[in-house]
Structure formats: C-alpha cells, structure tokens
Amino acid sequence: MSELPGVFQLTPMNPDFNANPHALLDELRQQCPVYRDKAAGVFVLTRHTDVRGVLSDTSMWRSPERAEEAAVVTRAILTARPEGLDVDDEEERSGILMMDEPDHMRIRGPFAKALYKRVAKSRPKVQQVVNEWLDGIGDAKTFDVMDKFALRVPVDVIARLLGVDNARLVEFREWSEGSILGLNPFRTPEQTEFYVKSRNALSAYMRELMEARRKRPEDDLTSDMVALQAEGAPLNDGEVSTNLQGLLIGGNLTTTDLIGNAVWLFLKNPEQLAKLKADPSLINTAVEEVLRYESPVDITGRIAPREMDVGGCPVHQSQSMFLSLRGANRDPQAFPDPHKFDISRKDAPHVAFGGGLHLCIGAPLARMEAQVALLSFFERFPNLRLADPDMKPQWRTLPFFRGLEELTVAV
Length: 411
Known about the structure:
- The chain is α+β, with helices and mostly antiparallel strands.
- The chain has one domain: CATH 1.10.630.10.
- 50% of the residues lie in helices and 8% in strands.
- The chain contains 17 helices and nine strands.
C-alpha cells in the first residue's frame, strides 16, 4: 500500500469503498492494522483483537469534548448545530451515545431496565406490525423490499413502543426520516432544512407525549420513563426526551439496513436460505451472521483516557480512535473463511453493536425485529427472487453506515 487512506476514503463517499469495502479493509488489516490519519486527527483500527480490546475497556471516553484539538473529525460534532434548531441545550447534550461516566450510566441504567422489560413482551406487537406491512404488499408481482417493508417495520415498531398516537404515525415517519439526516455531516442545504424541521417537530411532540403520559399513563415506554422519574430516577425531561428520540433515530436506520441487507444476502446465497427454511430455529444465528457479514454500521469511536499501547502503536491521552466494526467482523484471525456467508457459523462474537459500556442499547430490539421480519417475509413469499439476477447492489452513500437504496424483487 503506497499511501494510507484518510478516514473519508473508508466511507461510502469513496465509490471503490462503497462497491467493495473489504478490498481496502483487508489490505489495511494485513499491512497496517493501526495507523493515524493526521488530517482527521484519528487512529484507525481494523483488526478484531484491537477493536474488541478497545471496546471492552470500560475506562475509554466517548465525549468529543475530551478529544484533543487535533481530532478535528471527532470534535466536529461540537459545532454541528445547524441554524434554526429549536432544541434546548439540556436536550441536545443529553444523548447517551456520546456521554461519559457518571452521567452515561445514570441515564442509561433506567432506560435499559425499562426498554429491555418492554422488549421482552413486545414480540406479538412486532409480529403485528410485520404482518400489516406484508399484507400491504398484497398480490404485487414485483416490489422494492426497502420501500415496502424494511423501511416501514422499524419506525412503526418504535412508534408503538413509545406510544405514538396512530393518527400521528404518518407525521412521525416523516420526522424520523428527516431526523436521520442529522447523522450525515455532508447534508445539502435542503436536507439540513428538512432535518431542522423534522427534529424540531419530533422534539416538541416527545415533550407533549411525556406530559400526556404523566396525566394519563398507558402501556408504553414513554409512560414507563415518566413513571421512573416520578419514582425518583435522576433524569430530567431533556434527558428522557432526547434518548427516547435516540431510540427512534438510531434504531430506525440500522434495523432497516439489517433487514434489507439480510434479504439481499439470502437471495444471493440461496443455499443459506434453503438451510434457514429447513430449520427455522437457525434464525438467531442467521441474524448474527448478517450482522457480522454486512454490518449496518461501519465504525464507532473512542478516546484514549491515558497513555496507551494499541496493537503495538503508542496512543496518547485524549487522542481519538476510529474502530472499523466492518473490518473487525471480517478478520480471518477471528472468523475462518470470513468472506463466506454461513448462517450456522459458531466463531468469535461479532462487534456490529459495538461493545463495553456503550454496547448498542437497542440491540435486543433490533435482533428481535430482524428475527420476526425475516421468518415472516420468506414464509409469505416462498418463491422470492431478485427481479434482475444480475443486479448490482446500490448502496447508500451515508457516511459510516451501509444499507441499500433499493432492492427490487419478484414474487
């Protein structure tokens, strides 16, 4: 490798990476598994053992405020607030994704307890949402899996989990789509306008919903959270609101991609689909293999809390690291024959959901949605095939995420 790539070359904005990220990631892992992109001010890690080691270190920092001034990409989030965003600081700075201890666990603890308890009894509700969208496809001979199914199920599941009024679902879906644009640092002015409008509306609606549930609790997660506040959980309204929104924004995009990527992989690997149909009990390991093989999220970040040695490379306190989840999940040292999609694989754990204290809080819900959605989808359409067998996948160009623009199938 004559020249090490900058971090933006390791995103879908690079057409070569978008088409085949593993050509570059494999080369990096073999030749330079830990290196520094000086322009971006970050170390890039691609080896499973290094990535997993950093993820499992509970002393690592997440807050961009703790990163050195040279970590320009990591610190960019501190100045990313667009004009017109009507969300107060209490709410804007309270997302657990970028928060350190002790506040991180102060907020995450009650949220996780309430969320996991609700997820544990939500399978019938998820099945109902899946069935409704499958019914909506009807007798169509061809359809786009992303538009008609994968994009629809996650946002409706989250809406019902939160307790969104059915009459507001159309608006809620639109706010969700707009709010996701906040994850794109390269938005057009039109996209930024849509983002601001959507986020303002979503924030206002969430505050209204919390007030309504204080007066009249119902069987939903929003009621759970305001009840925990009333019982003494040390959470202010901004912290509850922004993290309920975070479940929507983070879970919608990544679970959509998990479902879409899974359908694509099974149609491209019919022997694996036949294996799943012959033994539906494989669905749990099948979803884990999709997460490993075609992770919806490219990278996560950590900041060194002290002087460290990472994979033989010195990393100083406050220096920032980008951990390639995609690169780690295809490391042959952890996964023999890593570029083979095999739903009966029993290798090392993947890192698609990150790890450590910041393990994705929505992981149990995403797993369950994918399990229900995939079994129901392939049962409903037993003879499903790609509308164009020679189709080249059109991957989105949203930085640090991987999902399909569309996936047209024939019944």
